[in-house]
Amino acid sequence: MNDDGTRRSSRRAFLAGASAVAGTTLAGCGGLAPGSGSGSTPTARDVSLSAPYMGPEDAPVTVGVYKDFACPACRQFNEQVAPKVESEYVDEGVVRYEHYDFPLDTHAPVSYTAANAARAVQHEADDATFFAYADLLFDNQGDLGPSTYADLAGEVDVDGERARSAAEGRTYRRVVGEDKQQGIDAGVRGTPWVFVNGSAVDGFGWERVRSAIESARADG
Q1: Angstrom distance (rounded) from CA 91 to CA 177
Q2: Which of 193, 220, 190 lies closest to 208, judged by CA?
Q3: Cα 193 to Cα 190: distance, rounded to the nearest angstrom
Q4: How deeply is 16 buried, as exposed, middle or buried, from its count of CB atoms within 10 A (0-12, 13-18, 19+)?
Q5: Which of 72, 90, 192, 200 has a C-alpha 20 to 30 A away from that of 29?
Q6: For residues 3 and 117, what is the distance between their CA atoms, to the nearest angstrom?
Q7: Residue 156 — very low, low, confident or very high, per pLDDT cuts 50/70/90?
Q8: How far is the C-alpha of 121 from the C-alpha of 76, rounded, in Å?
Q9: CA atoms within 13 A on the CB side of 151
Q10: Quick one: residue 146, left, alpha or beta (phi over 0 = left, psi -120 to 50 = alpha)?
Q11: How much of the chain is helix, strand and coil, in % rounded to 5?
């Protein structure tokens, strides 16, 4: 379910006041190691989920971002850049904004458990609720863990035990792993990593992202 009105109301109240950040001022999270880092962990069920998104399905520009919920740079992006993309482009029907999981082994295990908890929320509710939950995960980045996943799920009206169980059992390991492998194949080496209409952006600050969106918009 992708109701834009619900999606907008679930985002942060400070959206309009988020500050602009130049691409050269932001340093991303790296440390990519071969594999997914979760190969030996059993999964509770074999499910498929599409990338959660906000905005019109047929928007002329698609912005896809690979993120790690335990990455400080991703939190900075989520607080300072993503709200501007949403207010200036998603809400105007120009951009379809997609989330992709790219948990880094340097942030394991929370990078993987948080991604699984978030996908449980998406599966139990909808994409709008996923993004609201993702915001809460970034807000509580320093306290990620089973009890936090459960508590935050309750804040978005999802059964907290479902989020906790999914995190601890890596229920959505396949979904998260497929996202990460897709990113590796596309050349992702750290987080956040931004693509606009399939082309990687040179940096992830607001001015770089905005310029890439405007270029794709003009080309369309």
Answers
A1: 30
A2: 193
A3: 6
A4: exposed
A5: 90
A6: 22
A7: very high
A8: 22
A9: 9
A10: alpha
A11: 50, 10, 40
Sheet containing strand 199-200, strands side by side: 53-54, 95-101, 61-67, 193-196, 199-200
Question: Which among 156, 138, 110, 206 has a CA at the least distance from the CA of 6?
Answer: 156
For residue 2 the two structure tokens come to: 């992708």
Task: List, for residues 51-70, the tens digit of each pLDDT value.
Answer: 999 999 999 999 999 999 99
Cβ neighbours of 139 (radius 10 Å)? 14
Number of H helices, E strands in the chain: 9, 5
pLDDT at position 9: 39
Instruction: Give the residue from 155, 100, 78, 149 showing the smallest Cα distance to 120.
Output: 149
Q: Write out the two tokens for 185.
A: 């194949």
Dist. CA 53–CA 144, nearest whole Å: 23
Which pTM value belongs to this model? 0.84
Q: How far apart are CA 42 and CA 170, in angstroms?
A: 7
Rounded distance between C-alpha atoms, residue 199 and residue 54, angstroms: 19
Total count of residues recorded for the chain: 220
Only one residue has tokens 């909808």, namely: 126
